[in-house]
Amino acid sequence: MTVRARFENSSHSLFTDGLRGVLAAHPDAAWHDAGFVARRTGRGSGVALVSGGGSGHEPMHIGFVGAGMLDAACPGLIFTSPNAVQVAAATRAVDTGAGVLHIVKNYTGDVMNFAVARRLAAAPDGDEPAIATDVVLVDDDVATEDTSGPGRRGTAATIVVEKICGAAADEGRALADVAAVGRRVAATARSMSVSFGACIVPGSGAPSFDLPDGQMAFGVGIHGERARDERPAERAEDIVTDLLTRILPGTGLASGGRALVVVNNLGAVTDLETGVLFAEAVKQLSERGIEVERSLVGRFVTALDMAGASLTVVPLDDELVRLWDAPTSAPGWPHAATAPSHTDPLEHARPDDSAADGEPNAWISAWVDRVQQSVSELTELDRKAGDGDFGTNMEAALGHYPLPLRGSDGAVLEAISTAYLVRAGGTSGAVFGTFFTELGRALEADGAGFARGVRAGLDAVQELGGARVGDKTVVDAISPAADVLDGGGSLDEAAAAASEGVAATAGSAASRGRASYLGDTVKGVPDPGALVMSWLFEAAATHR
User: Fold this and answer.
1) Which residue of 73, 121, 197, 524 is 20 to 30 Å from 231, comparing CA positions?
2) Of the given ranges (52-66, 226-240, 327-341, 493-507), which has the lowest mean pLDDT?
């Protein structure tokens, strides 16, 4: 299989190099070293809007920072949610005293990290007061509404919510009112995507899923998630018919209704093709007595280079039409003006997560070394069980550390928790960062000890994401090890219990995270997060 080359300096720098260019062409955006982009001019008063998500979806979200839309956007690594530290910093930076609305796509990592950020913003920080926040969760993708996992994914309807809420905020409405109109849009917005070819995540060297020639994937995700429905390619007319059959029931639209239609290029199709899809959508909705009163056709929410498109339908009324028509200067919106900038906005962006000085720390170093050497293995496991970004996230969190790590258990684990939260982001960043925060606190000089730390970390992870044993997550490795340690068992016994937990994940279907969208197709594949956690207990048993 031949994989086309990219316009890049390296797969590792595509995110930062590309972000530099996006910002250089953005007339009203400034990079902040805490990891977010905000308007240079700022909002003088009123409710501020913050959104964000993994890179690879451009122009969403950074391209929609501007008057009339977002006040700040938090970019994550490729297909990886931003971390809570970024989001909290952006929230504090743009607040005018009227509160901040978070617009969040329904992906586990996004939901977790924005939730943690709201918790951080709700607490005073030195001289900074607590900030009132609210959230609109966007869950429009009908391809996953009948799965056992988190439900519908958040996709192209996100930009519709951002546009409507931005206009409502500009009218001076209160936080609760802006959130309410956003939720009203999200409640009936529905989308679905179809693709003739998968995207290729930088550094992976292979498509995120295999699709034979002449086949189409009906219901793909914007992070490269494969569809449960793969079928022979159809005519555009039949594709739109199938999409509308899935989409329309959730919108509540019937004859006499008014609709906004978004046809979104997922990255690598032509304008002629999206034009064909839009024309078919207008024709078929008209035949149902539904008037397409507003539209948006183009590249707005991409999945890197995926050869596909999504269709979104949103019911309209007079208020929503007025808010939709309100002006915006966001450059990603059609007809927005741009002007070049010649500064490097990322020159000083570096997280502070250096490991402590002191004597070598053998057991944590052994674990980090094993993870560093296993990135390709973890990537391949996650390609089969998820969306293929887990190895990349592990490398982002731990790949920069020279070995051996030095310092006490508490100091080293504190640095590692920061690295996960800041560098990795996503679900794994939130989960691993939370676990290591609790374990590190317990292993400080006056801490509670290893067993108590493992239990505290497990409790915090479960509170954050709601996972339980059997959900095919890190909990399947941590929980049995915690039970052994609570009962007075040895580290060797805890490591064995964790390993047995990993083996059990191979026989189960996921019910949390992106793997949950794939149903029984992930059976036979162990969970890579649980595997990495089991390595931690093995390292502790061998070297601690």
Assistant:
1) 524
2) 327-341
